[in-house]
Amino acid sequence: AALLTLTRKRGAATYAQTLQNIPETQVTTLENGLRVASEESNQPTCTVGLWIEAGSRYEDAKTNGAAFFMEHMAFKGTKKRPGSAFEKEVESLGAHLNGYTSREQTAFYIKALSKDMPKVVELLSDLVQNCALEDSQIEKERGVILQELKEMDSNLTDVTFDYLHATAYQGTALAHTVEGTTENIKKLTRADLTSYVDTHFKAPRMVLAAAGGISHRELVDAAKQHFTGAPFAYKGDSVPALPPCRFTGSEIRARDDALPLAHIALAVEGPGWADPDNVVLNVANAIIGRYDRTFGGGKNQSSRLAALAVEHNLCHSFEPFNTSYSDTGLFGFHFVSDPLSIDDMMFCAQGEWMRLCTSTTESEVTRAKNYLRNAMVAQLDGTTRVCENIGSHLLHYGRRIPLEEWDARISAVDARMVRDVCSKYIYDKCPAIAAVGPIEQLLDYNRIRSSMYWIRL
Question: Which residues form a coiled coil (predicted)?
Fold first, then answer.
């Protein structure tokens, strides 16, 4: 017993020490508005990346897909390094180059040896300010993207979430897909891509983030050398404002009885990134849990919805989500089921939502908080995850929130908070629904809406 107690105490102390001993995130803002942020460690490698406040939300109906197209073109050579010379130079360092585009941000990052950090900063600068955008490469990449769009149509989970955004934010830029439409990809020109870069790739909207065995002072010196040219210069001209959006309770149904499984997503409007309610909603999602038929555990899983799914064969998989944007979000769940199990699964899932609003227990909250702590500490694995954490935090919150602060926020959540916050966002709210596949059994919208509250005497 004494040994077990000692082990527990050592484990608790180790967790607390881990949170307290994370290196400080240093942030320097250059004269042109570029934020340079880093976390120094003793790693032999480093990840350096550029996070940009630009994505499909900043496009209109005619230019939707420009950010995604630009991400593809960024790796196809620069004015200094034409053709494949850019990729060859990255490979000569033994480095790994990657990037992604989302609805509100674009990122390019390189993982390399720590000693090559200055060179990596120069490569990133060249990538965003000197992209060649050669006509021949544009036409070649146009075909690649069109093929990608065809392949994406076969990923019904992604299709369902695109439909969910389309109905939840209809008439606004958040309804656009990240990849754009086939029609747009066929029409986008070099001038469209150049205009997008010139408008949005500005220093005040960028974060140069780094993690690993690097010096913050050297990172700042490299940034001053390579990120103060004309494309990044900030002369007081206005930065395009965030396009407004509005949430609409509505639905999109794409029925196709030839498909074997139905994909259903249901969501209410959630809070934006900086809203403290997000922590409570993440605890609520951890209570709901997630499930896939490939998981073990069966009916003994801690998630009540997962246990019901196993016992009654309700679905093949389900997962809750809390997707946040600058000023809004989507809080909901997605499940994949057989055609004749849709109604039962929807009934049980909405019942779990109502239970969160009315009768969440302290034991469930304790379990969920431990799950979140585990996921939080997992962010420390590798320089790339840390670098992305730094870049995204500075764009979303204006600072990097320490894990110790996150832990304090999680610890403060109790069952009453979960019930109150879930009632605020879920109870008697109009949801957005997206459904794809053999969905004949999916009830009428008004019936689903009526399950967003309980009649209690």
Answer: none
